[in-house]
């Protein structure tokens, strides 16, 4: 034993390196073991859904999974197959996986949509937007309004596999463990609780609109945020560096435009999930005959009141137009989107500090900003304006746009605990 201790002391550098390596290896193996326990527990829970008896006349529920293999730096496919796929298969769902790594999928998506009970999007913010865009293109080009309405009622599950997964903050509890976050999201789909989410329809000079579930950003913080990855070699300082170096341009960087908007709209009552049963044939015949012999009196057309548009000239360091999906209130009586116009008088120090906060919460509205609630708006840019918009973290060329709120357009599966929290917060 003394000989071993002497050898270790004489080669202290190698000993230190070996101890560090063993500690790291042990920690890594323990982490893998914990991840396997999480997967096993989730699969056991999924098995209870799969063991439920269903009548022989009832077909299996069909789930269409849209998987983006490129998400999370190409790791998404492996993450899905290890953590989510076993849960879905054990639950008794009839699963079809479609990879979203090629263009021109509209026709194939359309065929799948005609025969699916639920949609699952596996990826990040970009995947959500890409799938919604492809489906809306297919619906707009090839389907009747009746089928479009049916599509908006198909519940959507979101499995967070990407670098940015904004929706997961609303739908699932926070978790630092990626495996737990993915398994929680997959189990939430099986539990069947849903919440309605708003969608923004953003229409520019092109014919086809873009859809967003989070919102649109235009300004300096967005431009600096895109460049953060270029400073990867600075480690934890990369965010501050990107914002600091962006202040070397002309300062303050003002974004000028004209904004026209309409205020919030009153929320209509929830439509019943199930339609009332059709009356018998003799009742329908009686109603038609009664209408034929005594038609209802003609209604006097009422004067339509002109919409109350407000106009505003703005000069800002950043403009954001966001849905209320991050602060979901299931009991509110009005529908609106939040427009945040940040003051253009911001010091370089404030800009760098606020930039780090914006990376965590891109649509935060700092103190001193002008906040507007609107159901629809038109953003007119000055002639010669360059730059880009960020729409759900995807980059688009800046141009004049009309943004329209589509309230409660899509239903997303969520963790029952999160829904309970939303309802509890609304009561308080």
From TrEMBL:
Catalytic activity: an N-acylsphing-4-enine + ATP = an N-acylsphing-4-enine 1-phosphate + ADP + H(+); 1-(5Z,8Z,11Z,14Z-eicosatetraenoyl)-sn-glycerol + ATP = 1-(5Z,8Z,11Z,14Z-eicosatetraenoyl)-sn-glycero-3-phosphate + ADP + H(+); N-(hexanoyl)sphing-4-enine + ATP = N-hexanoylsphing-4-enine 1-phosphate + ADP + H(+); 1-(9Z-octadecenoyl)-sn-glycerol + ATP = 1-(9Z-octadecenoyl)-sn-glycero-3-phosphate + ADP + H(+)
Segments traversing the membrane: none
Record protein name field: Acylglycerol kinase, mitochondrial
DAGKc domain segment(s): 58-206
Keyword Nucleotide-binding: yes
Any single biological process term in GO: ceramide biosynthetic process
Main location: mitochondrion
InterPro entries the UniProt entry points to: AGK_C, ATP-NAD_kinase_N, Diacylglycerol_kinase_cat_dom, Lipid_Phosphate_FormReg, NAD/diacylglycerol_kinase_sf
GO MF entries: acylglycerol kinase activity; ATP binding; ATP-dependent diacylglycerol kinase activity; ceramide kinase activity
SUPFAM superfamilies, per the entry: NAD kinase/diacylglycerol kinase-like (SSF111331)
One GO term describing the cellular component: mitochondrial intermembrane space
Cofactor: Mg(2+)
The enzyme's E.C. designation: 2.7.1.107, 2.7.1.138, 2.7.1.94
Listed Pfam families: AGK_C, DAGK_cat
Pathway(s): Lipid metabolism; glycerolipid metabolism
Family to which this protein belongs: Belongs to the AGK family.
